[in-house]
Design brief:
142 residues; mainly beta; Metal Binding Protein, Guanine Nucleotide Exchange Factor, Chain A; three-stranded antiparallel sheet; 1 helix; 4% helix; binds zinc ion
């Protein structure tokens, strides 16, 4: 089933022809900036399945994991939309808050729990990883 999303103001739209490879919450310090104090919720897609229309601003940084990240957000309304890693060019991370139906994308894992504040709620039903986990492997496709 096709997946669609976009930013708060509607200037950016995103589409995926496929379901995500994984959905995870992340409590790393950078995500706390992006998610206004909470964990970010991230759907990891095969890059080939995702298309984006509209003007994105980009911010490059080196993550706590050591990965070289480019985080993209709407230049008008500031909604975080994408995250990409130089080390993982085969996937693109979409912020679940930017998808049209966030209820469909329940996280199955929570990462960087060591960085969560003492009041941070970590869903005990999710697999928990104290820091950076091994990357999910997309299914090979013809
Ligand atoms: Zn916008
Ligand atoms: Zn994070």
């Amino acid at each position: 089933m096709a997946i669609s999303g976009g930013c708060l103001c509607g200037a950016v739209r995103i589409h995926s022809a496929e379901e995500p490879v994984a959905v995870r919450s992340c409590w790393c310090r950078v995500c706390q900036y992006l998610a206004a104090g909470s964990a970010s919720v991230n759907a990891i897609f095969r890059r080939a399945a995702v298309s984006v229309e509209g003007p994105l601003s980009r911010f490059d940084s080196v993550a706590d994991s050591g990965n070289h990240m480019t985080r993209s957000f709407c230049a008008t309304c500031g909604t975080p939309v994408l995250s990409e890693s130089r080390e993982r060019p085969d996937v693109v991370i979409v912020r679940v808050g930017a998808l049209d139906d966030p209820g469909r994308f329940r996280p199955t894992g929570t990462i960087w729990t060591d960085s969560a504040p003492a009041w941070g709620l970590v869903d005990p039903a999710t697999e928990q990883v104290p820091r950076q986990p091994a990357p999910p492997r997309p299914e090979p496709r013809p």
